[in-house]
């Protein structure tokens, strides 16, 4: 698409948004506006361009680069406005134009016919102008909006070219009086920078877009050429003069074409310079953004590493404290076990002492029993030797220890019953302790579940923080990808710039070749051919320039897209920066809150030392307790199962022992009663036997004495009477032998009865030893039950202590969370207020700056417009610069 150099204007205070102006109808009336470039301080010849060097602008002139605002407005003002010339100068120019009108008509007729070609859509009318420095301001016929944008832009481009080609050259003879013949070889034309190319038609200078335009003579000013005035030329040289005139015209046309191409090239170069500067600025912005993003990423990584280090340090400190507490608990448990072992050893020593005392007592009792038996034997032996008195005395002596032994047995029986009652009471106490131990285990299980729930909530918070950190990293990666895409677009833009430079080099080479061939070739026909070829080359160059313009348009569109993406990237970067700053602020607030909490903790430590110790212990032991509760609970469950098993075993053993003890006690009671009864019966029988034997012995002794006395008397009588003739009868002797045998049998029976008594006493001793062994085992079971009860009490105390510390820790954490939440909410609200206030202030500042710039731009344009339209006011004498509209006579200040 061909580049359009037309633009729009409205009133001096018009906004930037472009609008299409209505078309104008062609008019035959000439415009009273002229362009005197000398009055504007510009070069009127346009022979040299800015490509040849820089220039020093005059003082009393306003450049377009010094005025910030719509560039198209300035371009239209340069295109349409002219200086306010004096009336004498205007008349002299009209007269000069009238004198040279016919000659120029004849000289330019052929070329005018060649260039007046109709176009599709709008029709351009090419005609002769009134004066060389005077131009028409008319446009095409009424605009039809069905015309394509490319054709409208081509028409506007043709108008610009016509305006440039209508300017006079320094080589022309008969130039106007107001234009100098010899000017410097550099141009003072300020080439304005155009906005992105859009298909627009020309607007009025300072009128509104809907103001009807003044009918003008023609739309496009045709090329003017200098015609050599030679009135005295001979008729033979007319053809040569015409050919020379045509040659000069072609040279002028080629120069104007080259000048036109250089002007367009200067426009393109200025736009390229602006685009390059914008690209450099965007590159710097992208580099700054990359540096800031990298710095923010480094700071975020540093903050993350510091947070991880602090967490790791806290974990290590907690682990160290946990190890210290575990070592302390292990030492405490070892001390408790040592104390329990010492108590058990003391109890064992006491039991051994009691056992030894019981053994000594039993031995003493056995010794007394043996002594009693010995005395019984002695009494029995003495019973044979002694008489009745001795036997009675011995009988009284043996009755006393038997009654003592009976009393001792009854006392032992009462002691055994008392021990059985104490064992029953201890069994009931062990059952109650097992119940309390079970309840304590359930409470510890509930505390473990609560601690596990708290640990899950903490892990959830840590996971949430990790997800926010990952989302922030993802946004940073997106921003980096956007920056990479923008760099790629910048590289493509640089490639386009290199291609445009190559096209410029080709164009300059073609221009130099055309100029050299046009000046050095003597042959006219070959020169014409070369001029035609040069025109074709210029057309091809024009086509290349049009393609280059399209590429420039595409480049500008790509640049706009790049700017849009840069703006989106900047917005995302700002969002990321805000998120990172919010995270940093949250982290800083968390650190500050931690410092405040530490200060408060120190203050509380100074105020309450006892509470500080408990809080420190709770902080140091809470985490370890949470991790060790499961192990302790598993151990407690195992201990509980073991205790239940032992309790069941002890209960069964206790039941068996109670049953066996009861049966044994019944047997002992029965046996003791039987023994007592037997002993009493035997004693009674012995007493009766002894009494009977003593009576029998006394009778037998008395009978024996009587018999001996009778026998002695009889013997004496017999001796005296018969001298020994007679003897005792055998019957009496047999009776005496029988009595002696019966006495011996009674003694044997007594000996066997004493032996049986001894055997029963040994059996009773064995039963007593068994009872003592059962008592010892029962005492050991009682001590083990007491130990288990002590351990259960210790575990219960530890569980209550842990529960209290856990409740304290939960209360402290809840209070800290509430404080942190309130402080964070306050800080976020304050931050939002400050951000909104800053944005409002920035917006107000920007709006104020834009308003001031618009007012300044309007004042500058109005002042310059008044200077151009109405003349320069003498401000030193107090006059004010005035201005007026194009077709109105009112003045405004």
UniProtKB/TrEMBL annotation:
- Biased region (Polar residues) positions are 42-52
- Region: Disordered, residue numbers: 1-69, 130-158, 189-213, 384-406, 436-457, 712-734
Coiled-coil features, chain-numbered ranges: 486-544
List where Basic residues composition bias occurs.
16-25
Q: From what organism does this protein derive?
A: Paraphoma chrysanthemicola
Q: Where is the composition biased (Low complexity)?
A: 1-15
Q: Which domain of life is it from?
A: Eukaryota
- Per UniProt, the ranges with Basic and acidic residues bias are 437-448, 712-723
Keywords carried by this UniProt record: Coiled coil
Designated name of the protein: Uncharacterized protein
């Amino acid at each position: 698409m061909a580049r359009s150099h037309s633009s729009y204007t409205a009133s001096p205070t018009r906004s930037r948004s472009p609008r299409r102006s209505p078309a104008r109808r062609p008019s035959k009336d000439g415009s009273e506006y002229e362009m005197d470039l000398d009055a504007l301080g510009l070069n009127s010849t346009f022979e040299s361009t800015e490509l040849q060097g820089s220039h020093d602008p005059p003082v009393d002139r306003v450049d377009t680069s010094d005025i910030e605002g719509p560039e198209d407005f300035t371009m239209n003002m340069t295109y349409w406005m002219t200086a306010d010339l004096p009336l004498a100068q205007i008349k002299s120019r009209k007269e000069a134009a009238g004198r040279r009108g016919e000659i120029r008509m004849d000289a330019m007729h052929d070329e005018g016919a060649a260039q007046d070609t109709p176009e599709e859509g709008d029709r351009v009318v090419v005609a002769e102008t009134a004066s060389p420095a005077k131009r028409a301001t008319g446009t095409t016929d009424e605009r039809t909006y069905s015309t394509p944008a490319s054709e409208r832009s081509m028409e506007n481009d043709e108008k610009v070219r016509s305006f440039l080609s209508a300017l006079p050259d320094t080589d022309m003879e008969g130039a106007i009086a107001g234009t100098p013949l010899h000017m410097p070889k550099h141009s003072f034309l300020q080439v304005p920078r155009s906005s992105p190319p859009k298909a627009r038609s020309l607007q009025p200078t300072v009128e509104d877009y809907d103001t009807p335009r003044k009918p003008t003579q023609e739309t496009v000013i045709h090329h003017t050429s200098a015609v050599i005035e030679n009135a005295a030329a001979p008729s033979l040289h007319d053809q040569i003069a015409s050919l020379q005139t045509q040659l000069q015209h072609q040279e002028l046309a080629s120069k104007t074409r080259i000048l036109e191409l250089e002007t367009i090239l200067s426009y393109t170069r200025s736009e390229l310079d602006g685009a390059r500067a914008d690209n450099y600025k965007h590159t710097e912005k992208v580099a700054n953004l990359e540096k800031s993003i990298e710095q923010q990423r480094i700071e975020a990584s540093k903050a993350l590493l510091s947070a991880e280090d602090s967490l790791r340090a806290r974990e290590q400190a907690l682990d160290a404290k946990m190890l210290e507490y575990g070592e302390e608990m292990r030492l405490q448990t070892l001390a408790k076990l040592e104390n329990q072992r010492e108590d058990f050893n003391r109890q064992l020593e006491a039991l051994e002492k009691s056992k030894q005392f019981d053994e000594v007592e039993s031995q003493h009792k056995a010794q007394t029993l043996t002594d009693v038996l010995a005395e019984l034997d002695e009494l029995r032996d003495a019973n044979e030797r002694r008489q009745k008195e001795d036997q009675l005395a011995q009988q009284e002596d043996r009755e006393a220890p038997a009654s003592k032994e009976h009393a001792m047995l009854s006392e032992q029986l009462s002691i055994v019953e008392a021990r059985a009652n104490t064992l029953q009471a201890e069994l009931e106490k062990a059952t109650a302790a097992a119940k309390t131990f079970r309840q304590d285990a359930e409470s510890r299980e509930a505390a473990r579940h609560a601690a596990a729930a708290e640990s899950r909530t903490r892990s959830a918070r840590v996971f949430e923080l990790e997800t926010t950190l990952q989302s922030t990293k993802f946004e940073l990666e997106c921003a980096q990808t956007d920056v990479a895409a923008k760099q790629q677009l910048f590289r493509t833009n640089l490639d386009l710039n290199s291609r445009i430079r190559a096209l410029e080099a080709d164009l300059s080479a073609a221009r130099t070749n055309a100029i050299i061939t046009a000046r050095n070739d003597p042959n006219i026909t070959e020169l014409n051919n070369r001029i035609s070829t040069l025109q074709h080359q210029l057309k091809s160059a024009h086509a290349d320039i049009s393609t280059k313009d399209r590429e420039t348009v595409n480049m500008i569109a790509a640049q706009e897209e790049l700017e849009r993406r840069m703006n989106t990237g900047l917005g995302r970067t700002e969002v990321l920066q805000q998120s990172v700053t919010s995270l940093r602020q949250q982290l800083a607030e968390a650190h500050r809150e931690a410092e405040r909490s530490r200060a408060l903790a120190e203050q509380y430590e100074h105020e309450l030392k006892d509470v500080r110790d408990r809080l420190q212990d709770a902080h140091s032991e809470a985490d370890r307790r949470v991790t060790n509760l499961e192990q302790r609970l598993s151990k407690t469950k195992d201990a509980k199962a073991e205790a239940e098993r032992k309790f069941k075993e002890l209960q069964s053993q206790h039941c068996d022992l109670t049953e066996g003890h009861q049966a044994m006690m019944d047997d002992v009671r029965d046996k003791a009663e039987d023994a007592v009864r037997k002993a009493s019966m035997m004693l009674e029988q012995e007493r009766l036997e002894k009494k009977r034997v003593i009576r029998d012995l006394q009778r037998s002794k008395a009978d024996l004495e009587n018999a001996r006395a009778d026998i002695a008397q009889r013997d004496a009588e017999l001796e005296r009477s018969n001298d020994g003739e007679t003897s005792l009868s055998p019957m009496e002797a047999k009776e005496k032998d029988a009595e002696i045998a019966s006495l011996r049998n009674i003694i044997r029976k007594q000996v066997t009865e004493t032996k049986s008594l001894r055997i029963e006493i040994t059996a009773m001793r064995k039963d007593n030893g068994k009872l003592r062994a059962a008592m010892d085992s029962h005492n050991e079971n009682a001590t083990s039950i007491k130990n288990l009860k002590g351990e259960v009490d210790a575990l219960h105390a530890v569980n209550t202590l842990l529960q209290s510390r856990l409740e304290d820790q939960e209360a402290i954490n809840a209070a800290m969370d509430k404080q942190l939440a309130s402080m964070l909410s306050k800080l976020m609200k304050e931050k939002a207020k400050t951000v909104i206030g800053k944005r409002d202030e920035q917006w107000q500042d920007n709006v104020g700056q834009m308003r001031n710039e618009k007012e300044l731009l309007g004042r500058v344009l109005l002042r310059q417009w008044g200077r151009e339209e109405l003349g320069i006011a003498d401000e030193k004498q107090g006059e004010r610069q005035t201005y007026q509209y194009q077709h109105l006579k009112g003045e405004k200040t």
